[in-house]
Amino acid sequence: APAAVAVVRAVAWLLLWVAAELACKSSAALAAAHTDAGIKASCSEIILRQEILKDGFHRDLLIKVKFGESIEDLQTCRLLIKQYIPAGLFVDPYELASLRERNITEAVMVSENFNIEAPNYLSKESEVLIYARQDSQCIDCFQAFLPVHYRYHRPHSKDGETFIVVSNPDLLMYCDQEFPILKCWAQSKVAAPCTLKNKDICQWNNMKYKSVYKNVTLQVPVGLTIHTTLVCSVTLLITILCSTLILVAVFKYGHFPL
């Protein structure tokens, strides 16, 4: 009988210990859930807006990012935009170098073997990294500027225009310290250069955001195949005429040593 009583007591203490441990874990999980719920409740969306400025074959892509929360606590954070350039557009790396020297924009090409002279049908999508700057007129806003140019397209048989779709970019953020608010937006980690001035690699947070526009669509005028004969004929005649005038001027006004 005493042995049975001892076994019962041991089993009872074991059950009480397991119950207490489960209660502690449940309380911790509930507290964590309440914390996450509190953070998510205070979260607001990041709003991204893409705009195309200027007319013609040479445009400017302006990207604006607005944080719903005040970024006074995020002054140690940097914002990096990974922009995908479709085959119908190109970014001039030499122009980017000039803009960086003049401190107008901080952007660099990622794609290699890039040909700015190639037409649309011989090109492929490229990537550009743009280090956004804080907007002086908006405390919780960033903006980035990128010049883009149209490529030549194949002529069409009927329609004298084509369309280029500029997809929304990847939005990356890196902070020197962790902030609870980052849990609202961070999705995954992406390796990218910390700055343009050094080759150090940082682990950036890939941020989720809401875009004002799903995509930006550009309308590009193209030639018509039915005009091929006319255009080639007129071009050839003008070339022959200009060459003849140049030769006449050379022989008439040129001085040739005997």
From TrEMBL:
Sequence intervals crossing the membrane: 224-251
Cellular component, GO, one term: endoplasmic reticulum membrane
Record carries keyword Transcription: no
Compartments, record wording: Endoplasmic reticulum membrane
InterPro entries, alphabetized: PIG-X/PBN1 (IPR013233), PIGX (IPR040039)
Keywords, ordered alphabetically: Endoplasmic reticulum, Glycoprotein, GPI-anchor biosynthesis, Membrane, Signal, Transmembrane, Transmembrane helix
Similarity comment text for this entry: Belongs to the PIGX family.
Protein name, as recorded: Phosphatidylinositol-glycan biosynthesis class X protein
Organism: Myotis lucifugus (Little brown bat)
Gene name of the record: PIGX
